[in-house]
Design a protein that fits this description.
By secondary structure, this protein is α+β, with helices and mostly antiparallel strands. It has three domains: 77 residues, Roll (Membrane-bound Lytic Murein Transglycosylase D, Chain A); 47 residues, Membrane-bound Lytic Murein Transglycosylase D, Chain A (Roll); 122 residues, Distorted Sandwich (Glucose Permease (Domain IIA)), CATH 2.70.70. It is built from six helices and 16 strands. α2 crosses α3. The chain is globular and about 55 Å long. The N and C termini lie far apart (60 Å).
Length: 290
C-alpha cells in the first residue's frame, strides 16, 4: 500500500490526508505551479501582499480548497463574503497564506493595538505582512492576522452600542487589573497572578462550545482552557485562558461561585500576560469602559 504523506498546515495539527485531499498536488508558492506536475496550475494567480486568487474548478468545495492550501475552511469564508456552498464554477476566491483573517487598517491603529485587540502576537503580524510598516503608518490597506478570528456573530447580532445594557446583572468575575478595553468577541482582560480564583458572573449552566467542546484543551483557537456559561436570559459568558476548570458540562452554578483558576493557556502573548479573558454574548460587556 502506498504511504500517504501527512498534511503539514500552518496553525493546524498534523493529520493523515483523506483520499480526496491526497489527489490534490501541493503548490509551489514561488511560481504557482503544482509540484510534481509538468503543467502550471492555471487557476491560481498572485493577488497582492502575499495573497492569492484561486478560480474554482469543477468539484471544488470550500473544505477541499482549504485542505489544498493548508488553511481552515473558515479562513476562506471570512476572506470571501460570497463563499457559500455550493461554489460557482470559475468563482474567484482570495486565499490567505495562513489560517486567520484579513483586517482593514484604520487611522490611529498601531501594530500593538491590533495585536492586542485580536489577542495575537505582533511577531505573527510582521511575519505575514512584509509591508506592515507602510500599511500601519498610512492607516490604509489590509493586514493578514494569523490565527485571529473575526468578532463573533453571536456576540454581535447587532451593533455594540445597540446591545442591551443589563446594568448589574453580571458580577466582576475575578479580582485583578481590568484593562477595560473591549477587544475581539466583546471581551475584556482582567490580569492577576496565575491561580487567582475565577467566579461565575451570573447564575448559569455550563454548556459545550459548538467548535471547541468542553474547553478542556490547551489551545482551543487561542482560548486555552475555558468555561462557557449559558444564562436564563439567553446571554452567555466565557472565561478563557484558565489554568484549571472546577466545573463540568451540565453543572448549574450561582453568581459568585468559584468555577476556575486564572492561567495563561492558549494565546496569552502580549502585555496582559497571565489573565482572564471575559467575554459576553448577547449583551454589553459591563466591564469595558474604553
Amino acid at each position: 500500500m502506498k504511504e500517504v504523506s501527512p498534511l503539514v498546515s500552518s496553525g493546524l495539527p498534523i493529520r493523515p490526508l483523506s483520499a480526496l485531499e491526497a489527489e490534490i498536488p501541493p503548490i509551489d508558492e514561488e511560481n504557482g505551479t503544482a509540484i510534481g506536475l509538468s503543467n502550471p496550475l492555471t487557476n491560481l494567480f498572485p493577488a497582492r501582499d502575499g495573497l492569492k486568487r484561486y478560480k474554482v474548478r469543477q468539484g471544488d468545495t470550500i473544505s477541499t480548497i482549504a485542505a489544498q492550501f493548508g488553511i481552515t475552511a473558515d479562513t476562506i469564508k471570512w476572506a470571501n463574503q460570497d463563499a457559500r456552498s455550493p461554489l460557482r464554477l470559475n468563482q474567484e476566491l482570495i486565499i490567505l497564506p495562513t489560517t486567520g483573517i484579513l483586517y482593514t487598517v484604520r487611522e490611529g491603529d498601531s501594530l500593538e493595538s491590533v495585536a492586542d485587540r485580536y489577542q495575537i502576537t505582533t511577531e505573527g503580524i510582521k511575519k505575514n505582512n512584509g509591508n506592515y510598516q507602510k500599511i500601519v503608518a498610512s492607516g490604509k490597506g489590509t493586514l493578514i492576522l494569523p490565527l485571529a478570528k473575526p468578532f463573533s456573530k453571536n456576540a454581535y447580532t447587532q451593533p455594540i452600542e445597540k446591545l442591551p445594557d443589563l446594568k448589574n446583572y453580571f458580577a466582576l468575575p475575578a479580582a485583578g487589573y481590568n484593562w477595560a478595553e473591549l477587544h475581539a468577541e466583546n471581551a475584556v482582560d482582567i490580569a492577576n497572578k496565575c491561580g487567582t480564583s475565577v467566579y461565575a458572573a451570573a447564575d448559569g449552566l455550563m454548556v459545550a462550545d459548538s467548535e471547541y467542546g468542553d474547553g478542556s484543551g490547551e489551545w482551543n483557537g487561542g482560548y486555552g482552557k475555558f468555561i462557557l456559561l449559558e444564562h436564563t436570559n439567553g446571554t452567555k459568558t466565557r472565561y478563557a485562558h484558565l489554568s484549571k476548570t472546577l466545573i463540568s458540562i451540565g453543572d448549574q452554578v450561582t453568581r459568585g461561585s468559584e468555577i476556575g483558576l486564572m492561567g495563561n493557556t492558549g494565546n496569552t502573548d502580549g502585555p496582559t500576560g497571565c489573565h482572564l479573558h471575559f467575554e459576553v454574548s448577547g449583551a454589553k460587556n459591563p466591564f469595558a469602559t474604553r
